[in-house]
Amino acid sequence: MGTFSFYGNCSNAVINGNTNIGTIKGRNFSYTGGIVGKIHSKCEFRSCLNAGIIEGSLHCVGGIAGFVNDSTKITQCLNTNKVDSTSTDFYGAIVGKNHGTIEECFYDNQTSFVGDSDTNAVGLPTKDMLYDKLNSYLSDSV
């Protein structure tokens, strides 16, 4: 029961503009996320994109992060793909279990399930995600 994602754990850092396009399968892992599995404290994630399929078998599975602590902020992040968990404990399009702040984040509501932790995240149809939000994200990140 460890952490599985692009970054395993995060503490006291700013992560800006990271992108995941690969499938992440957290089999027998808690805290599975497209960009980070578990955020311990004082991290900020800005302009991150998950376009890969995220699959988890235990709790806390999210498109951007599996678990977010209360001193963390996630802003202007996108999830354009499916988030799936064989467990029903804490999974969502942006964050699996959230104690932090989510602002200006979007997810594809035709491919991703929105969980209770995705407060302030906005679901858009695939065409709007691909043409409006993703193009805007890509032009701002260059």
Overview of the structural elements:
By secondary structure, the chain is mainly β. It has one domain (4-131). Helices cover 11% and strands 49% of the residues. It has one helix and 16 strands. The chain has one helix at residues 126-141, and strands at 4-16, 19-20, 24-26, 32-46, 49-50, 54-56, 61-62, 65-68, 73-75, 78-79, 83-85, 91-92, 95-98, 101-103, 105-108, 121-124. Strands 1, 4, 7, 8, 9, 12, 13 and 14 form an eight-stranded parallel beta sheet that branches. The longest helix has 16 residues, at 126-141. It is globular. It starts with a strand and ends with a helix.
Helical amount? 10-25%
Number of strands: 16
What is the radius of gyration? 13 Å
Determine the N-to-C terminus distance. 37 Å
Q: Note the main sheet.
A: 8 strands, parallel
Mean pLDDT: 82
Put the structure in a nutshell.
This protein is mostly beta strands. Helices cover 11% and strands 49% of the residues.
Q: Which features characterize this protein?
A:
142 residues; mainly beta; 8-stranded parallel β-sheet; 5-stranded parallel β-sheet; 1 helix; 49% strand; globular
Q: How is this fold's topology laid out?
A:
Blueprint: E1 4-16, E2 19-20, E3 24-26, E4 32-46, E5 49-50, E6 54-56, E7 61-62, E8 65-68, E9 73-75, E10 78-79, E11 83-85, E12 91-92, E13 95-98, E14 101-103, E15 105-108, E16 121-124, H1 126-141
Parallel strand pairs: 1-4, 2-5, 3-6, 4-7, 4-8, 4-9, 5-10, 6-11, 7-12, 8-13, 9-14, 10-15, 15-16
